[in-house]
Amino acid sequence: MPTMSRVADLRGKTAVVTGGAGGIGQALGRRFGRAGMKVVLADVLAEPLREATRALADEGIEAAGVVTDVTDYTSVEALADAARDRFGGVHVVCNNAGTGAVSEGYLWEHDLADWRWGIDVNVLGVIHGIKAFVPILLEAGEGHLINTCSGNGGFAPIARGAMGGPATAVYPMTKAAVLCLTESLYTHLEMTGTRVRAHVLFPGGFLNTGIWESWRHRPDRYAATQQRRTPETTLAGVVDRFEAAGAHVEFTPLDTVADLVIDGIAAERFWMMGPPTAADQVVSKKAASILARGEPDYLVDVLVQHAESTSDEGGRP
Ligand SMILES: NC(=O)c1ccc[n+]([C@@H]2O[C@H](COP(=O)([O-])OP(=O)(O)OC[C@H]3O[C@@H](n4cnc5c(N)ncnc54)[C@H](O)[C@@H]3O)[C@@H](O)[C@H]2O)c1
């Protein structure tokens, strides 16, 4: 495999991060900036995006914010144009924008509007990012495209939530798709002989970000079509439920996630993940189940998982 950019090579180059107005995206932007990169943050939320961009600029990072809706290909193309116009090229792209895609009840009861919203942002958004940016990376001749996945779906779906009832199937389905897309992309890039690489990021741990309360910014076009029977999720409520189930909740610093990406680029690591945790057992159990043509006994039960470990990744976004 050819040698790629190392961290030092990133200096002076440009990173584009979708979902950059907060959470993991902003942390990635800051980390890229501190590595000497120019940074384009993209998000659908204009005001938080402005604040996030200003925070980076206040640190001396050359940063630009571009309001972007990843569900709209024209908007993502405009982001690519803006990044090139402003900084002359693009070398690292993080398809990181995401929505919590929570839906209540059993899978067959989920609101179709929840499916559409989750699929449009988490899957189509990534496809749009690939289509708009890979040709630019190919033109540059080197670079990295990083898609944000999750153990919830990337490994196996969380089937049962912290209250013991069914957990949303929307989110894990979209993240399973993100892994599949990234695997295909990796192969297709390799087939062309390019030095451009695809990576998949599993943020890991319990992260204090906006994803738990995505419903606060739900666009009208995805308005619920069914009457909700339960209150919307809040991070405080999730923490309470985990603690009531005997699990101690400790948030992983977002800088740790950003380090996975920087280190993963330097090491040319496809799987951008932290050190092994109990969640890895889901992967081996799943492989064993497939090979044995057995029952899917690896499916994640968040309560059981927390009884086993409080530092794994599989039970949350
Ligand atoms: N927080 C976790 O525990 C966790 C764990 C694993 C994976 N992830 C993934 O990490 C990524 C970042 O999420 P986060 O946890 O930082 O949450 P977050 O809500 O803080 O960040 C997501 C960002 O995406 C933006 N976004 C939503 N819809 C968009 C659209 N249509 N166009 C452009 N931007 C849009 C939001 O405005 C928000 O700023 C997501 O893909 C999420 O699924 C999060």
From TrEMBL:
It comes from the Bacteria. Keywords: Oxidoreductase. Transmembrane segments: none annotated. InterPro entries: NAD(P)-bd_dom_sf, SDR_fam. Belongs to the short-chain dehydrogenases/reductases (SDR) family. This is SDR family NAD(P)-dependent oxidoreductase.
